[in-house]
Amino acid sequence: xxxxxxxxxxxxxxxxxxxxxxxxxxxxxxxxxxxxxxxxxxxxxxxxxxxxxxxxxxxxxxxxxxxxxxxxxxxxxxxxxxxxxxxxxxxxxxxxxxxxxxxxxxxxxxxxxxxxxxxxxxxxxxxxxxxxxxxxxxxxxxxxxxxxxxxxxxxxxxxxxxxxxxxxxxxxxxxxxxxxxxxxxxxxxxxxxxxxxxxxxxxxxxxxxxxxxxxxxxxxxxxxxxxxxxxxxxxxxxxxxxxxxxxxxxxxxxxxxxxxxxxxxxxxxxxxxxxxxxxxxxxxxxxxxxxxxxxxxxxxxxxxxxxxxxxxxxxxxxxxxxxxxxxxxxxxxx
Length: 334
Description:
disordered N terminus, 10 helices, alpha/beta, about 40% helix
């Protein structure tokens, strides 16, 4: 197995996004002998303000650019002697994929291909690692029982999840066809600091404190397994260093809650931190028309990564939720 602690520079794509901007500071701290080049095109979902803590770090370099730009990616591999890739870059908002799927196909499929192909050519058989970050949504929807495992069939139900499934298969093909050292991790729903305002938990917090209706799709009973973003970061670090080539690892928080419960919990935290003059924030919750192709339930069995890599999620949901609310209240200066 390649020693990723030796003289290495890894390319992290999409590092200004939610998970990437949490991961880069953690990774630099845990891996002082590894240099990081962060490539991000800075769409609406990317925010360099979330990386202020590392912008002057001696092992950190930011490059603004698109993973679909073949000449740029080729230049980065050559200029920085890239010895590993962790690919966060993706269009990820399901609603946007329903309304405008084209960009999801371009970024998530063509962009991943561009990274893989440049890595294949530049590394030329070297045992350098390509770690692809994916989602549990590629597996479709669960009923009331059962869990996704690494053996679950792919059944994507939205343009977003279909594009991520396609990229997963591309990564797999580069292992089986070219022998490239690749790993894929599929995670459950992340929550925590630095998430874009359009996502569920930030939307609930923002709507509540602005005194407007808190929109919850359908009957509010759609269930997700929630993973605190810092726990996800520790899992990615473990998989990058210790994951076996060609393998997939599922990362989950073992925190299943329906959306209505999530909204209620957040409102209860806000009631304690910034009480309203009258009533509870829960009174602002409103059920709205469900979105197209809305999967009923996701839940992950993370026993493989636990047994093989000794990883587990450590943050309780309630403590993670309180940390998340505190971060947004500080962001909004409340």
